[in-house]
Amino acid sequence: MDLEGRSICHLPCHLPGTGAFVPEDVAVTAAGLVVVSDLVRGAVHALQHAARAPLGRWVTVGTYQAPRGLAVDAAGRLLVTDYVLGAVHSFTLSPALQPLAPASMLGLEGPCWVGPGPDGGLAVSEEFGDVWLFGSACQPLGSLGVLKGHAFGNPAGVCTDVEGSVVVADEQGRRVTLFPRAREPVCLVSEGLGRPLGVACAPQGQLVVADAGDSCIKVYQYHSEPA
Predict the structure, then answer these.
(1) Cα dihedral angle (181, 183, 184, 190), rounded to 10 degrees?
(2) What 3-state class would DSSP assign to 104?
(3) What is the pLDDT of residue 51?
(4) 3-state SS assignment for residue 132
(5) Whole-prediction pTM value?
């Protein structure tokens, strides 16, 4: 979809020979490759385009115990949260869609969503827990709850804006909060949200929120600096 709510294309989630699957999360690489996590089948699929399949066909590029959140970091690595294992897996894909340089960060409790973090790192939300920050070398930097003195209800989607501030959707708190580097947290949206899950900062300066409460994608004009 575009930011006006118009559908650009529809991608049926159907694996050759095995049938339909239910996508949990979706990410798009810089090269335009669409990748989805499949919690039910315990897999990550990528949409491969070929002469025999001009509309694309889904190819499984990884299997995990419970893949949920999915993102692409600043280095182009795919990031996958594994809810049961308590981990974030990272890897790149070859032109033939073979996984390369796999790595894992362990020790999380119920990781659900993941997104790029400040300075090439990543941010991971734990179900009914906290949001953890990791550096570009995957080193732990601490949690937003401790660093900013903020209590989450159930942190869900996470992203980072162009200023390096982390944005978090709180499903239970029904709000979206900005966590600037050197200032106190700022509530960006607190009205009209039912179950905010996904969140993203669009290049045009909008804040995009996926609200499962009313099955809507909501777009807000966004400024990283408070008025």
Answers:
(1) -80
(2) strand
(3) 56
(4) strand
(5) 0.90
